[in-house]
Structures are given as structure tokens and as C-alpha cells.
């Protein structure tokens, strides 16, 4: 395998976005990239964002990757061109028929092979022949049964057979409708280990599994562009805070290093807020609260325990940090108590 192909396996570049290889967790459908789902008639999506995909029929499945020029192709071209004009960042498009592929090739940075396509090798190969990065969802096999891991990875081989190694796997439960997504995070993790390729968790319009998906090893989260704002917020929070807690970072540029620091600081601020709330509860439970009730022996044990998790800092550097954290919590508790008494 060539070095370029190996790099494509570990990390895939879609426009100016790199997915995988220990890079930051991305949110597709959010601020990192947009995706467009075309209708089965090639028409534009509802509100220019996404729409329900019809499974392509045999009449449109020629496997050519180009399709026939006509009304459907013209509608698809207009929809994708409009999406391209509105969004300067990475744009992925999920075609509904083979006829849509020419529009995808002209305007998009990547192609999404949806669950309805992924079980058909001819359609997968047609998408791969565009030469664009491919986001390959786990598809549905016969009678609507979600594809097994082996069947899913066979579709990856179909892309590779067309000379396209730039494949990102996306687990959304093998369902054709992203709003019904319920990803199997264990299967997603197994696919990451078996294929050595980046993986996305398709969450549909529900951000409730965003933290779990990042913790399970997702390189990105695929969110329905029509999802409520709270789902997008949950996805971005997981990509920032949870990722900083569970994913190693090895940035190679100054901007990347600063971005990694920003994510760690976001996680640190979140934990400090939680700690302050718990410390305030302790002050209410202690017989003697505030600065007079400090337990210096417990604080020394706390620092020693932290030093085992942060040996490069050690107790000597951690002690003043934790002293400042503890004192800030005590001051906050006293301010709140004084405010309650005055109230």
C-alpha cells in the first residue's frame, strides 16, 4: 500500500477538514461541515438543508457514476450549487439516484453513501468513482435488516476496488432516515479497529448520545441539519469537553496546539464549576464551614492522589494550584451564604 493510501486510511481530508488520526472531533451538520440530502426526484431539499431520501430504483441504477442529463440532474445541480454558494466550508452531499452524482462531482467536497445505497455494490462503486472522499453509512441488508460488520466492511472494499481509499465510516444503526438514528457504538468501535479508518456516529436529531459516542472513539458526529439547537449544542459540547477528557492530542501547528489548549480549558472550566458546586454542598454539611473548617490533612491527601495522575506536575506544583481552587470555592460559598442571609 502506498504512503498516500495509508494516510487516507488513518485520516481523511474533506475540503479543509481532516477527520481521524487523533485530530479534533468534528461535527458534520454543525459548524465544521454541512451535508445535503437530495430527494428521490432530484429536487432541492426542504429549506435548503436536507430532506428524506427515497431509495433509488432500478431504473436509475446504471452504475456509471454519471447518470443521464435531464430534469432530475438539473434540479439536483441547482440544489447542490445553491448549498455550495451559501456555505464556504466543507460540503457533503448524499445523492438519491445515480443521476445526482454529476452534480455532487461538480460542487461537493465529499459524497455520503446513505443506508439505502450502502447495501448495493454497484451504487457504492459509482459513488467511489467520483474520486471524492466517501462517508459510508452502515446500510440495510435484505428485508430491512441492518448490515453486519462484515457486510459493512465489504462496502469499504468496494470503494477501494475503485481506487478510492478516502473512506469515512458512519454508524447510524443501518437506518435510511437519519432522524431515526440509533447508532450501535460497540459496532462503530469494532469497525474503527478492524478497518483502521475514521468513524462517525450518526445521531440524527438527538444529541443525547454525543458524549457516549465521543467516549466510544468517534472521530466525528453526524447531526441532522434540521435537528433542534439543543442537539447541535450537545454535539459541540461533546466534541469540545468530552473529547478533551478522553482523546490524546498531538498538534503539529501553533494554531492546532492553541485549539487543543482551548478544549482542555473548556473541560477544566466545566469540572471547576462542578467542583465549586460540590464544595458548596460540603460547606453546608460540615459542622464548621468556611476557612475555619479547612482540613489540611485531607487537602494534602487530595494533592498526593492528583500527583499520581499528573506525575509530570507532581505534588510540588499541584499544591498551590489546588490551594487556589479550594480558596476560590470557599470564597464563593461565603459570598453565597452572605447573600442568603441578607436576602
Task: Give a structural overview.
The strands form two sheets. An eight-stranded parallel beta sheet has the order 3-10-9-8-7-6-5-4. It has a two-stranded antiparallel ribbon with strand order 1-2. The model is unreliable at 1-7 and 41-71 (pLDDT under 50). It is built from twelve helices and ten strands. Helix 8 (210-215) links the parallel strand 9 and strand 10 (220-223). It is elongated, with a radius of gyration of 25 Å. The chain has helices at 3-10, 71-86, 101-107, 115-118, 121-128, 149-161, 185-195, 210-215, 229-246, 254-285, 296-309, 314-342; strands spanning 11-14, 17-20, 26-28, 34-37, 91-94, 110-113, 134-137, 167-171, 199-204, 220-223. The longest helix has 32 residues, at 254-285. The protein is an alpha/beta fold.
Amino acid at each position: 500500500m502506498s504512503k498516500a493510501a495509508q494516510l487516507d486510511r488513518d485520516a481523511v481530508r474533506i475540503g479543509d477538514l481532516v477527520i481521524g488520526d487523533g485530530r479534533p472531533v468534528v461535527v458534520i451538520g454543525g459548524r465544521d461541515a454541512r451535508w445535503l440530502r437530495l430527494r428521490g426526484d432530484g429536487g432541492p431539499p426542504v429549506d435548503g438543508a436536507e430532506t428524506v431520501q427515497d431509495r433509488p430504483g432500478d431504473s436509475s441504477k446504471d452504475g456509471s457514476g454519471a447518470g443521464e442529463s435531464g430534469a432530475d440532474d438539473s434540479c439536483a445541480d441547482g440544489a447542490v450549487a445553491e448549498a455550495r454558494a451559501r456555505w464556504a466550508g466543507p460540503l457533503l452531499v448524499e445523492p438519491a439516484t445515480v443521476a445526482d452524482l454529476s452534480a455532487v462531482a461538480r460542487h461537493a467536497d465529499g459524497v455520503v453513501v446513505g443506508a439505502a445505497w450502502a447495501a448495493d455494490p454497484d451504487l457504492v462503486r459509482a459513488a467511489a468513482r467520483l474520486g471524492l472522499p466517501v462517508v459510508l453509512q452502515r446500510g440495510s441488508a435484505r428485508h430491512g435488516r441492518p448490515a453486519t460488520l462484515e457486510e459493512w466492511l465489504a462496502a469499504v472494499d468496494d470503494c477501494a476496488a475503485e481506487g478510492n481509499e478516502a473512506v469515512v465510516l458512519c454508524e447510524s444503526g443501518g437506518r435510511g432516515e437519519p432522524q431515526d438514528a440509533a447508532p450501535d457504538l460497540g459496532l462503530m468501535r469494532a469497525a474503527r479497529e478492524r478497518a483502521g479508518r475514521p468513524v462517525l456516529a450518526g445521531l440524527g436529531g438527538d444529541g443525547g448520545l454525543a458524549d457516549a459516542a465521543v467516549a466510544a472513539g468517534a472521530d466525528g458526529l453526524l447531526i441532522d441539519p434540521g435537528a433542534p439547537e439543543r442537539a447541535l449544542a450537545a454535539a459541540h459540547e461533546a466534541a469540545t469537553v468530552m473529547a478533551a477528557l478522553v482523546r490524546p492530542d498531538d498538534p503539529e501547528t501553533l494554531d492546532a496546539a492553541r485549539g487543543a489548549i482551548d478544549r482542555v480549558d473548556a473541560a477544566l472550566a466545566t469540572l471547576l464549576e462542578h467542583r465549586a458546586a460540590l464544595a458548596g454542598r460540603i460547606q453546608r454539611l460540615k459542622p464548621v464551614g468556611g476557612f475555619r473548617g479547612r482540613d489540611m490533612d485531607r487537602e494534602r491527601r487530595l494533592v498526593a492522589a492528583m500527583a499520581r495522575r499528573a506525575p509530570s506536575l507532581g505534588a510540588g506544583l499541584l499544591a498551590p494550584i489546588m490551594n487556589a481552587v479550594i480558596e476560590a470555592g470557599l470564597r464563593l460559598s461565603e459570598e453565597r451564604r452572605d447573600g442568603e442571609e441578607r436576602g
